[in-house]
């Protein structure tokens, strides 16, 4: 197995820059848990992958290494790089998705805080899995894969994720990484893992045991709030095709409502930025990383002045913007109205999901099964195909995440996989997302694999 | 009358109901106590509250598995990537620190919370590598409680107890125009204990810290050593005219001995009274204490107070404690100081002897992770087995401690073993050596530590009492009195029976007397040819 590793996951043998001038020459004294697990399993790590600085961005353009160019091209074309359309690979894990899409490796480790695995996967036409929070060690970055060794952006959201060329390769990496790491305080305890597995198996038995491909009893929910006006109309027809394919196999498809979805983006940016302002306080040029000497005309020569000098030089514009936003959200005057309010909304969003799932929440103390609920949710991964690298404006980049942040806020597993490129679109990939209850990775991978098979059989008609 | 008034200060007294509630945060007294007329500041009431930071005596740091440093650790030798806030590291809570905090809470009758959480307190400083300190702002591990001060006969209420990280140390080198940073201390576990503003004089404040120090040591939570920085105090002081509302408080930070704290309070009270007397007002500020001038000086005003941007720590799960767990901590707690005092009193020791013996350890008894090793008390109890405790305690307190102090050695470096000390006391008690020779022997053993028995040493130095005379006769007479039948048998012409008496004398001289001399003396006393 060949694997690329996102550059915000610590490796002893290679630099870990987080795409930041702050850590341009930084080398970690340890390997992330996920890197260690991959090494132990005999995987070959081919290198570090570009990303948005500290994972902050949706287009992978905020990087000292330059933007990531989406390597996709239609199977029928064979244009040289210079004459291809320059489109974004998505962010923040653009390098990981591009490496897999370009065939440089069979899988890549990435991180997902608000969509950083699923969005690039959608834009590059590969499979992206964001596991349940707490499953993979972040001391690398997955939280459903544990996090030890993953450079923190927003601890309560950061997950180590996997990008693979197909569902099988993503599952194989997941199997290697999904172990308990006692060094990650946010890693789910072995008992919780067991309970989640039992619940998942129990509910999969209702349909997955039937003869191959028969999904009578599988209940799929389509959240109605996931079709905002900004959603490109060309996404609708391939999405319908996926839904039809599942219906053809006997699945019941139901409309469901997640009424607090519209608050998710604002809540996400407040929480993620607040945590980022805290987590990035450590980059002061004292213990490691960039240190810019004070100019000779420095007035105070105080530690504060020395820090601001190094931090001003070391962080890019997007990181600075989020640090300032997050710092404000935590000030005594703003804390209640921003940070606490965002936490309340986060809980509402979580509750929305818990209401629609059939599988009880393994993290809750008492769990009553919801017979009217659905096994998984299905929705488009993004509102559009990959944007051009030169068509950027600030706020638009933030709204790329609108369909991915709710699962992040709720800590749920989500899988994005490519839909067949449709004649009605622009010829660029589109992802469909399968979201499950906490710990139901196996379930979303099974549904995902069925969609993958169905989409492979799809004959893409020529435009017209 | 004074006593009666002071008793009324007990928090259970109905007089202690809150006089007024102040919500502004600039005044901090919520009770009014009458203080005796003619105190050091007639007509004024002084209100004092204390925040104490105690370093937990745990083997490992609060959130990393790094060993905590000792006084001899090379700077930056006890630093793991987490302690230096390396990217990708995460905290893991040390249960031993939680355990020590619970013990402290039990000893202070504080209400241990079933659920407590960690928060980040943000500020930029060179000895705080992460840019934040993990503390317990919103949900501390224990709330409420009290500490009784016997001399002041006052029960001081405790506001709360919280767990937090210590910072590193910044060492300023003005000559090299450098700041050096030592992260050995960074991330060590601390408990912050916040008192209510219940103290009314610097003496009460001094007794509060001394008593708290003893409590921390008795539960092995901290060695409470102010000089070495393992116990640090911030003191809040305000004054008001008798009968008027509490005044604006000032906080004096980083006081590192009880003596300086008492001096700082005195100076601060004077400053505030002078200010008010001259028609001015006290502004709410943080002050430092200059140990050379004995005066406080302004550090920053309330307006300059930083916004710490507290945020719940997103990595650390809450501490959940069950009643069963708290009970198990309680059961494993070492004997409290009071219980040890009681035991020593049963040995017949005076209050004063007990105090001296217990003060000997001064924190050194506190071992890592909740173990306690009362070196001096244990030494006393071992030596006094089968001996007169009063005699033993005199030897230990007056001779041994005195001689150690002369040599500037702490008790834990005492080279004289329990066996050696026991032998020495026995020799003096039995008259084998004189009292002054005994003291000489003790000094000899301190200056030339070895495992040699004191009797051999005495022999080598020629300090043994003269066996030819009186003393040997006394031992022999005693043997004859103790064994009348054997003595009669010898007198009646059974000479071999004398060996039984001889054996007796050998034993009572602990083998130091010469058998031939004993035989001659016994023969003389029994009028044998």
Task: Count up the domains of chain B.
Answer: 3
Number of helices of chain B: 16
User: How many strand segments of chain A?
Assistant: 12
Radius of gyration of chain B: 31 Å
The N- and C-terminal alpha carbons of chain B lie at a distance of 80 Å
- Structural class of the secondary elements of chain A? alpha/beta
Let me know the largest β-sheet of chain B.
10 strands, mixed
Helix content of chain B: 25-40%
The residue ranges of chain B in which pLDDT falls below 50 over 5 or more consecutive positions are 1-32, 34-38
Strand order of the largest sheet of chain A: 2-1-3-7-4-11-12-10-8-9
Radius of gyration of chain A: 21 Å
Largest interchain contact: A-B, 46 and 30 residues
User: If you average the pLDDT of chain A, what whole number results?
Assistant: 90
Strand content of chain B: 15-25%
Largest sheet, strands/sense/barrel of chain A: 10 strands, mixed
Helix content of chain A: 25-40%
CATH superfamily of the largest domain in chain A: Amidase signature (AS) domain
Give an account of the 3D structure.
The complex is a heterodimer of chains A (464) and B (529). Chain A has 13 helices and 12 strands. Chain A starts with a strand and ends in an 8-residue tail after the last helix. Chain A has 464 residues and is an alpha/beta fold. A 10-stranded mixed β-sheet of chain A has the order 2-1-3-7-4-11-12-10-8-9, sandwiched between helices. In chain A, strands 5-6 form a two-stranded parallel ribbon. Chain A has helices at residues 33-40, 94-101, 118-124, 167-177, 190-205, 236-248, 264-279, 303-314, 317-330, 336-356, 394-399, 405-410, 441-456; strands at 2-6, 44-49, 107-112, 127-130, 136-140, 145-148, 159-164, 219-223, 252-256, 376-380, 414-419, 430-436. Residues 137-145 of chain A have low confidence and may be disordered. The longest helix of chain A is centred in the C-terminal third of the chain and has 21 residues, at 336-356. Chain A has 2 domains: 2-266 and 341-456, Amidase signature (AS) enzymes (Alpha-Beta Complex), CATH 3.90.1300; 267-340, no CATH class. Chain B is α+β, with helices and mostly antiparallel strands. Chain B has 3 domains: 2-319, no CATH class; 333-460, no CATH class; 470-525, Arc Repressor Mutant, subunit A (Orthogonal Bundle), CATH 1.10.10. In chain B, 35% of the residues lie in helices and 18% in strands. The longest helix of chain B is centred in the middle third of the chain and has 20 residues, at 258-277. The A-B interface holds A 9-10, 16, 18, 23, 26, 28-30, 32, 138-140, 147-152, 154-156, 182-186, 274-275, 277-278, 281-282, 284, 286-288, 303-304, 307, 327, 330-332, 335, 339 and B 81, 84-93, 120, 122, 124-126, 129-132, 179, 181, 307, 309-311, 314-317. Chain A: It comes from Russula earlei. Chain A: This is Amidase signature enzyme. Chain B: This is Glutamyl-tRNA amidotransferase B subunit.
């Amino acid at each position: 197995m060949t694997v690329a590793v996102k550059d915000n996951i610590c490796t002893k043998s290679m630099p870990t820059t987080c795409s930041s001038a702050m850590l341009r020459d930084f080398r970690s004294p340890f390997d992330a848990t996920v890197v260690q697990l991959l090494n132990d399993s005999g995987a070959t790590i081919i290198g570090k992958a570009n990303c948005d600085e500290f994972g902050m961005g949706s287009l992978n353009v905020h990087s000292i290494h330059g933007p990531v160019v989406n390597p996709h091209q239609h199977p029928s074309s064979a244009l040289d790089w210079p004459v291809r359309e320059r489109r974004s690979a998505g962010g923040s894990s653009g390098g990981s998705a591009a490496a897999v899409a370009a065939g440089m490796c069979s899988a890549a480790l990435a991180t997902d805080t608000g969509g950083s695995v699923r969005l690039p996967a959608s834009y590059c036409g590969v499979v992206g899995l964001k596991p349940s929070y707490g499953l993979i060690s972040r001391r690398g970055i997955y939280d459903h894969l544990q996090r030890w060794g993953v450079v923190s952006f927003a601890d309560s959201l950061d997950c180590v994720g996997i990008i693979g060329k197909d569902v099988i390769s993503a599952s194989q990496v997941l199997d290697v990484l999904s172990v308990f790491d006692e060094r990650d305080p946010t890693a789910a305890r072995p008992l919780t893992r067991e309970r989640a597995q039992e619940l998942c198996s129990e509910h999969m038995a209702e349909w997955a045991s039937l003869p191959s491909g028969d999904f009578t009893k599988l209940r799929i929910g389509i959240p109605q709030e996931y079709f905002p006006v900004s959603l490109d109309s060309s996404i609708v027809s391939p999405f319908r095709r996926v839904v039809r394919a599942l219906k053809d196999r006997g699945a019941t498809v139901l409309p469901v409502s997640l009424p607090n979805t519209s608050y998710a983006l604002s809540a996400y940016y407040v929480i993620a930025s607040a945590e980022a302002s805290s987590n990035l306080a450590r980059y002061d040029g004292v213990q490691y990383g960039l240190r810019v000497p004070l100019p000779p005309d420095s007035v105070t020569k105080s530690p504060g002045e020395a820090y601001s000098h190094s931090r001003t030089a070391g962080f890019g514009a997007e990181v600075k913007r989020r640090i300032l936003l997050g710092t404000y959200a935590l000030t005594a005057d703003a804390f209640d109205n921003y940070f606490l309010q965002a936490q309340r909304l986060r809980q509402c969003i979580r509750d929305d999901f818990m209401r629609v799932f059939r599988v009880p929440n393994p993290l809750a103390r008492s769990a009553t099964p919801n017979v009217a609920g659905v096994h998984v949710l299905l929705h488009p991964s993004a509102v559009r195909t990959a944007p051009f690298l030169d068509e950027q404006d600030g706020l638009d980049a933030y709204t790329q995440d609108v369909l991915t942040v709710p699962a992040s806020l709720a800590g749920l597993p989500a899988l994005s996989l490519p839909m067949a490129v449709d004649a009605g679109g622009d010829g660029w990939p589109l992802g469909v997302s399968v979201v499950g209850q906490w710990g139901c990775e196996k379930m979303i991978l099974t549904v995902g694999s069925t969609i993958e098979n169905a989409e492979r059989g799809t004959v893409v008609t020529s435009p017209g | 009358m004074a006593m009666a008034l002071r008793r009324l200060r007990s928090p259970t007294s109905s007089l202690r109901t809150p006089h007024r509630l102040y919500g502004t945060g600039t005044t901090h007294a919520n009770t009014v106590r009458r203080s005796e007329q003619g105190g050091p500041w007639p007509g004024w009431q002084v209100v004092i509250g204390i925040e104490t930071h105690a370093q937990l005596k745990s083997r490992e740091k609060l959130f990393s598995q790094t060993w905590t440093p000792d006084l001899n650790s090379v700077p930056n030798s006890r630093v793991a990537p987490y302690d230096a806030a390396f990217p990708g590291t995460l905290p893991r809570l040390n249960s031993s620190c939680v355990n020590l905090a619970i013990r402290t809470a039990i000893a202070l009758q504080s209400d241990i919370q079933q659920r407590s959480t960690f928060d980040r307190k943000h500020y930029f400083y060179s000895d705080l590598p992460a840019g934040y300190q993990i503390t317990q702002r919103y949900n501390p591990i224990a709330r409420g409680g009290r500490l009784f001060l016997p001399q002041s006969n006052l029960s001081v209420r405790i506001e709360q107890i919280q767990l937090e990280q210590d910072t590193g140390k910044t060492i300023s080198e003005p000559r090299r125009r450098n700041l050096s940073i030592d992260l050995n201390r960074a991330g060590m576990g601390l408990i912050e204990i916040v008192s209510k503003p219940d103290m009314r004089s610097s003496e009460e404040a001094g007794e509060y810290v001394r008593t708290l120090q003893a409590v921390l040591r008795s539960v092995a939570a901290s060695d409470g050593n102010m000089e070495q920085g393992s116990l640090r105090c911030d003191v809040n002081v305000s004054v008001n005219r008798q009968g008027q509302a509490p005044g604006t408080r000032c906080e004096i930070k980083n006081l590192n001995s009880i003596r300086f704290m008492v001096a700082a309070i005195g100076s601060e009270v004077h400053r505030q009274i002078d200010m008010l007397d001259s028609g001015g007002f006290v502004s709410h500020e943080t002050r430092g204490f200059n140990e050379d001038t004995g005066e406080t000086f302004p550090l920053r005003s309330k307006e300059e107070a930083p916004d710490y941007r507290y945020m719940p720590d997103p990595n650390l799960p809450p501490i959940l404690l069950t009643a069963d767990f708290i009970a198990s901590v309680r059961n494993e707690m070492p004997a409290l100081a009071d219980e040890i005092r009681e035991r020593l009193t049963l040995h017949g020791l005076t209050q004063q002897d007990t105090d001296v013996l217990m003060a000997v350890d001064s924190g050194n008894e506190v071992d890592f992770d909740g173990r306690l090793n009362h070196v001096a008390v244990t030494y006393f109890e071992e030596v006094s087995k089968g001996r007169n405790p009063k005699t033993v305690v005199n030897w230990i307190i007056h001779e041994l401690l005195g001689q150690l102090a002369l040599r500037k050695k702490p008790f834990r470096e005492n080279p004289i073993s329990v066996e050696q000390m026991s032998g020495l006391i026995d020799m003096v008690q039995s008259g084998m050596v004189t009292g002054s020779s005994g003291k000489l022997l003790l000094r000899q053993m301190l200056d030339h530590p070895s495992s040699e028995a004191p009797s051999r040493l005495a022999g080598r130095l020629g300090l043994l009492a003269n066996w030819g005379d009186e003393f040997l006769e006394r031992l022999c007479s005693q043997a004859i009195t103790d064994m009348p039948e054997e003595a009669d048998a010898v007198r009646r012409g059974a000479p071999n029976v004398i060996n039984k008496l001889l054996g007796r004398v050998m034993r009572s001289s602990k083998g130091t007397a010469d058998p031939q001399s004993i035989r001659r003396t016994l023969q003389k006393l029994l009028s044998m040819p």
